[in-house]
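Q: Predict the bound structure with shikimate-3-phosphate.
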Amino acid sequence: MRWTSTPVSDIRGTLKAPGDKSCSHRALILAALAEGRSEISGLLEGDDVRNTASAMAALGADIDQDTAGQWIVTGVGKKGLRSPAQDLDFGNSGTGSRLIMGAIAGYPIKATLVGDESLSSRPMARVIEPLQRMGARFEASPGLRLPLTEEGSSRLRAISYTPPHASAQVKSCLLLAGLRAEGVTEIHEPRQTRDHSERMLRGFGVTVDVSRNGAASNVSIEGGQSLIAQRTDVPGDPSSVAFLAAAAILSPRGGLLAEGVMSNPTRDGVFRALEMMGARIGAEETGLAAGERLIDMSFESSELTGIAVPDALVPSMIDEFPILAVLAAFASGETRVSGARELRVKESDRISAIISMLRCNGVDVEESDDGFTIQGCGGAVPGGGLVETRHDHRIAMSALIMGTAAQNPVTIDDASMIATSYPNFFQDMQALGANLSPGRT
Ligand code: S3P
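A: Predicted complex:
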């Protein structure tokens, strides 16, 4: 269904950040593998995370929602995972499917994984190849994609591996397989990716060694370790907050306080880039959750200037390029992004989706193989476009944010995917003063 965002002058208010998607997947998976009863609070109840919960339940864990955001999980522990009676449907989620492929690999079970049109077009070779080297077996669709059937093994071998792409999903998949492998599994990352798995595994009692050398990181895990049930409080999602923050920054009288946001250098690249562009951002430390620091963040209406985004920031803002592109469209001067080829294999080809989102709203943008260059409109983005969202939640939300500050309303062709990562997006945006309505006005 189409939705339209009509320009407003005020985006103001205070909101609690929704639970982090990456941490929500990991909390469910680790609790489902652990011995005993875990409690999770603040879980993001988006479609992607619910699919992970259903998959881990089908693999043998007991998973129940207690109250909103509170979940109780009794893990399989020593009993181990079992073959599911039905296909595991991951919907739109690359994270759920790739991490759980790692978990399945170490058990003598067989499972078929399926997903929606977007997920079925995404590359799975990046996890299939190292898992095959460890001893798992696969029958995949052409191009090594979903649907696929995986057969795990109780005699997995540890490997030492340098993923060809910067990917936390690949690293996390191999850490989960490594938990059940004989020997020490090592993952070498030329540029460190988000490290929530390492932190949360430690919370569940597992020893994970990490050594850093500049931007590079080596992570290793010894097989045969057991997880102990935990209470996990899921920290707030900086990627979801980035959408609200953008709306406040672009609004003439904008002001947002976002509470309980996870502060992690592997995730905060978008805020660092925004500061370089001149955004007024404040942060105050408030505590810890799931081994992560929490902060309250403030964002004020700001005039932005285009930048060349440093390549070194790319892994820590990999999900934020659609919203960064919107912000750059409103800035004065040119913004250049390079070294972000991975955007081609996200929920959509995000480079191509960003180009058409901006062009149909009157913004001058040029595409390159691994990025794009945007000529900022100095505040005056024409808008008025109908944006093709291509099954991509982040394109959908970015386009609606553009509509809050453009000269004309912006419409998206389909809002359904937003529920995969930010089910309360519409309520939160409306609470801040956005004017979102179904259909095209
Ligand atoms: C994620 C890792 C990233 C990111 C995705 C979530 C994770 O994907 O884009 O939204 O939770 O590990 P890649 O591993 O493909 O970079």
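A: The CA atoms of residues 187 and 334 lie 37 Å apart.
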